[in-house]
Amino acid sequence: MNIGVLAVQGDFAEHCHVLRTIGATAIEVRLPDHLAGLDGLIIPGGESTTLSRLMSLYGLREPVARMASSGKAVWGTCAGMIMLANEITEADPVPLQLMDVGVQRNAFGRQVDSFEQALAIRGFGDDEYHGIFIRAPVIIRVGAGVDVLAALPDGRPVAVQQGKLLATSFHPELTADARVHRYFVALAGGPSFDPDAPAIAAPRVR
Amino acid sequence: MVVDVLTGTFTVKSGHAQMLKGGVIMDVVTPDQARIAQESGAVAVMALERVPADIRADGGVARMSDPTMISQIIDAVSIPVMAKCRIGHFVEAQILQAMGVDYVDESEVLTPADEAHHVWKHDFAVPFVCGCRDLGEALRRISEGAAMIRTKGEAGTGDVVEAVRHMRAVQGAIRKLRTLPDDEMVVEARDLRVSLDLLQQTREEGRLPVVNFAAGGVATPADAALMMQLGADGVFVGSGIFKSGDPARRAHAIVQAVTHYQDPHILADVSKNLGEAMVGISARSIPAEQLLATRSV
Lengths: 206, 297
Fold this sequence. Notes:
The structure holds two protein chains of two kinds.
Chain A: E1 2-6, H1 12-21, E2 25-29, E3 40-43, H2 48-57, H3 61-69, E4 73-77, H4 79-84, E5 85-88, E6 99-104, E7 115-119, E8 129-133, E9 138-142, E10 147-151, E11 157-162, E12 165-168, H5 179-187
Chain B: E1 5-7, H1 10-20, E2 24-28, H2 31-40, E3 44-47, H3 52-58, H4 67-76, E4 81-86, H5 90-98, E5 103-107, E6 128-132, H6 135-143, E7 148-151, H7 161-177, H8 185-192, H9 196-205, E8 211-214, H10 221-229, E9 235-237, H11 239-242, H12 247-259, H13 264-270
Parallel strand pairs in B: 2-3, 2-9, 3-4, 4-5, 5-6, 6-7, 7-8
């Protein structure tokens, strides 16, 4: 499986590491040419205003949208989720409008309010998922064709899926629990998802 | 149901720095400059009253900036806002944390408040970035709780030579570690004045255990790409942008240079017609007692 990771800014190296650990081929994407032959694309965590500008500047918006509309799997984490949204609560950044959700940036406050919390993810069995939320966005509108896979105790959705499009407020690439990456690789056409697959080695900065 | 929510953990502090990787953090002294930085694609801004070049020129004691000015910058942009406290001045750090600053830079650019002790950063929910000139200094700061490191360079000069020296020193020391047999690690830890555990972790990972940006003298897109090719995770640009002829254009070019640091054709394109770079002063011409990098190590 060839999974691209948008590498214009953010923690793309961490995503690439998890993908390689679970047997996928990870390809850094900085220019439109790098999208050729991919089975799926991850838009990583980072600064969404920066991602938005660099995607415009290097002509990545249209080909990524085409990838999504042609049925390829696309997953956004944190800033990546903001980029996938149909609308956000501010004028800047400009999202790709691929998923029928509304998103609020920095929904929990400033960095001192960043947090870790266990989450139940639908289809992942009884083992809770370790959610790491860093200046995280939250979903404030869920369209008709969108499934909520996980929500905070107050009911706010933090993981959603629409067909082969996936978005998470939190950062699976910062944990040793590769289940969300395995789930995404399965969506992209890889081996079917096994929620009991073993954890990977402890995460580290890449 | 009891739901545990953990805030201020080392994971969310160092994780925030991971989200800044591949990005440029720019020094700004006004809300307008902060907006220009955000518009240019900066991943964060460093709010301060004077850029290092002016601190150097003005002399005197440099302290934490006026909270009014920092608040105005926080209100002006949606990207993270960093601010500097003096080395060892844990009360300035408490104030910055209370104001909602996203990252505190315990910085040698300000006049140190304590020449023996740095802030014990584990006690704070806000993450800290600290400067280093070599691996020992980096690991000592991480032991104290720094969630991000930047190589110091020599701030306010526009001369990249010290930034290169410090990045090579850190990367070279890590490469050396990987060749050391186990029984020589104890002496290495003693020589570097760091804990054996942290040194072993660094050897295993083959890199610093936290994100490491380059700082202190970056003035051009080529400088920024040079630091990235030498192993930086991202770049701080201080005086280099707003002391240049066309700040918005230069800022935008440096952002692109950090993304495409391995592509000389793109680097050539973004380096064109940037106007005057900051004038700068050769780091070598600065008397030893006026160097910032050697403060409180």
